[in-house]
Amino acid sequence: MNTLIFFQTAFAGRRLATLGFLWLVMITVAALAAPLIAPFDPLEIDPVGRLAEPGWPNLFGTDHFGRDTFSRAVYGARMTVIIGTGSVAVALLAGGLIGMISAYFTRLGHFLMRCVDVLMAFPALLMALALITLLERSVFNTILVIGIVYATTTARILYGMTLKLRGEVFVDAAVCSGAGHFSILFRHILPNLVSPLLVQASFIFAFAQLQAAALDFLGLGLPPEVPSWGNMLSEERIYVTRAPWLLIYPGMLIVLSVFSMNLVGDALRDSIDPRFKDDIAGV
Amino acid sequence: MALLEVQDLEIAVRTKGKLLPVVQGVSFDVDDNETLGIVGESGCGKSLTALAIMGLLGGTTVRITGGNIRFDGMDLLTLSDGERRSIMGNRMAMIFQEPMTSLNPVYRIGDQIIENIRQHQKMTNAQARDRAVELLSLVRIPNPSERVDSFPHQMSGGQRQRVMIAMALSCDPKLLIADEPTTALDVTVQKEVLDLMADLQTRMGTAIVLISHDLGVISETCDKVAVMYRGRVVEAAATENLFTELAHPYTRGLLNSIPVVDSDVDWLEAIPGRVPTLEEELTGCAFHPRCALVTKLCATTVPQEIEYKPGHSVRCHFSGKVAP
Amino acid sequence: MLAYTAKRLLTLIPTLLAASILVFLFVHLIPGDPAAILLGDTATPEEVAQLSAEMGFDRPLYVQYFIWLGNVLQGDLGTSIFFRQPVLSVIGSGAETSILLASMTMIWIILIGLPIGILSATKQGTWIDQITSSGAMLAASIPTFWLGLYLIMIFSVTLGWFPSSGFPSLSDHGGITNLRYLLLPSLTLAAPNAALIVRLVRASMLDVSREDHVRTARAKGLHPTRVAIKHIFRNALIAVAAAFGFTFAALISEAVVTETVFSLPGIGRLVVQSILRRDYPVIQGVILVIVVLYMVVNLAVDLAYARLDPRVSLK
Question: What is the ipTM of this complex?
């Protein structure tokens, strides 16, 4: 209920952000109901109908294998949601835990945060590339790599936020009433961090999309047969002059989704506790 | 004609599409060499009044909706932005409540004073610098020729407020507006800063508008006082008259909450309740929910300003019945 | 200043050592005999045995690390499997492109990001602000490779104004005019980063404009433009400068995608190709070089920071 009010105030009077939110809802519906929406099998090859222009029955045309671009785009939404939520989950779980624990247990925290500092000396894309080198190309590994990359920033951010809350009176009160470490961290501190975490999650989701698309494009992301928007762009880029629609649709879908996620994050950021605003790493 | 004449000043704040009046029908005037104190609890509109005179009401949310302000024969509200700026920091200057944050942390204090001087006077940088050193010694900063190159963070709060005063005086203003200039300072430093201002006034003949929530400060430094409550001047008089023949229950309350040394009183009386927020609709006298003398009339009718004694005006239906 | 620099350099060393351990372990995380991995598929068993002895692969891990670190400090980052050349010279051959690309990109970021950010902040709440700040957010949401492909299609293929790929060295025929090869790539790489700078400049300026000293500046009767530049922007620059350094350091690795789209012979494309070729010594070398560069730039930013903000003591 609280979250609902939080969303309501965040989107009040923000038309662009509301549109962005609706777009994300549409993407999620497309992802869930992909087999019902897609008119063709996204993997079915049709050598006769190669590079067909957008029209009927191929709304977005076909690619150089004759696969239906619209169906692939619908299934691509599925990959977008999976990669996005997966990376956010990894980043928040790993990074969030490290950050909160570091802020709470100061001695261990000092060591852990030094480790995070070292990892942050590796620029994001470089770290992703280094990890990718060690792993096979798969959906899971892509999620893992992007999640780990953003776990470092998340740890830093949560460290700062938890530190701010640690000094609050309500934490002292909890300590005095005999609450254990676990209870203080997760039952008293964490609930106060839910809305800033939500904001951070939306920005990580947006970054993860761009990062995943870049990896796909370099041929280092999802396996080539997986229909993702990044893979579609990567495979069809040599046809940019002959069949421009092959690049316009997936590209626009990426831009719209990342933009929407950023808009949502921006709107939510303006309605969280102002103390945490400067901690958020976003656009 | 007085140096500064404020007539029926109205200021409103725009929130959620509505215009809420925050200052209503405020009038007063100040002569050369005279100090006017404006006193009231926080939120009564005294700072907004000061900012309105200075021309610093910012943005689109707060604006003047009525009345006029005349300064040195000019109608300030009809001047162009450029004309207004040529007065600001020049013939009219202001010092603020927060000396710790009122100076730009990245520039040397000398440069900040020089900027003010050269904005209004044709001087070379070297001349302006000499003038800045002179001003710093005037406000009794030790070693002014060295301190002119200090950064704000290298000075104490009292020293920074002196720098603010030096800056304000840099173009010999005819009017100095001081918004709670001593509130953020230690008591001993407060006294020094107030003495400094009084001293400079006698030397330069500057008119001062001193804004404070502290009647003690006001009583020591001001020639006359205007007491504000929720956007209106509820009582105005010469300082000595206000204390001997006060006519408004709110002034009474303010006075009672000042500790007096050597008195037998064991406790201080606080005014019950708080200043109502802007959103709260109020009919009648704004003070009636907190007033001991309240009647039905107070809750329905806004009291008009009456001349209680010559030079002493008040807004209260029962002005004669308030015990001094 | 000198003492401060020295002190900051000293604090850099532990981080640098820790990062070097990670880079060293990189080869050991790949399943298989490290010597065989470093030499590639075509190596003979004799070669493998020889390298193994040289690097101490039969000895404890920490000994191996110190042997490796000793080599690195002498400039020996190993030998590329693909090029059959020292890794350092392979990386060196891509340095010119990468540094020029990053520098040109930085110039665009400053020329585009700062003025638009200042404009957006000073016109806060107006339609100009809404268009520039939402536009910046949109620009930050565009994948660089997609933008690059379209810039190639429009300006190289259709209009024929700029070359679409490659970059001959400045010392080759054409000299300084060869920079035109980097125009589209640098604009591509600049777009999302300039957009982030616009957002940052706007946000920091709005923060500063609420501070008390800005009111003091306005009370001096200064022109609003002067207040915006000398008082608001100047103070916001403290936060923005940190982002500049961060951005510049990240550009070298972010350029991976752009260099691939435009087929530029830079370090970024070298990484991708080395990953696809499984040329591990090069990958390891590039990671090390970029991480060191990244730290050095961040140190430089810290020093610049101290210059911009007098409250930061240099002692």
Answer: 0.87
